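Today's session is about reading a structure prediction critically. Students often jump straight to the picture, but the first step is always the sequence itself: look for stretches that repeat, for charged clusters, for runs of hydrophobic residues. Only then move on to the predicted structure, which in these notes is written as discrete structure tokens rather than atom positions. Here is the chain we will use throughout the hour.
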Amino acid sequence: MGEKKSFYKKRIIKEIYFTSLISCADLSEKINKSLPLTTKMLNELIAEGIVIETGHAASTGGRRPVMYALKPGVMYVIAVAMDQLVTSIALVDMSDSTIKEITRFELRLDKNPNALSELTKNIEAFINRCPIPKDKILGIGMGMPGFINAKKGINYTFISAGETSIDDCISQRLGLPVFIDNDSSLIALAELKFGAARNK
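Below is the predicted structure for this chain, in token form.
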């Protein structure tokens, strides 16, 4: 039950992140769990200091539902955007605000056997300069050019991690979960989740 509960709590956090504000009833529907169980997990996340109540939704004629959001200042992600010559790194909170000035550095990907080690060193230096504790960073998301197998963490075009994956290689060095995908695919995903294609 512990692992299942943890899984659904992560689902709740994810749904709140993508919607910013959401009611318990809508959460229950999205994670396909009963209203009492969803309420219980929400209350646990509130007790853990991750979720907050933000008041009631606007009136639509019936009883106004309580709305929930992620508590500011609790969780962050590191976003890494790469092209073939320049890489940018940002620290982002759960409301998609950039917390620290974006760091940019030159990193040539084509025919550069040291690209992975240079990338990892720069991300590590960025983390060391971050104004928040490392344990508040949920993970590192990376968009990069090339033909990528996101599930396996492999970039077949530019960066080689040898017999391991790029994800695992960076994660082992930095002690954080790492996820990679093609930059164009991630732009489309961002449009779907936050832009003009939202709710399509």
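Discussion point for the tutorial: Residues 20 and 52 are 11 Å apart (CA to CA).
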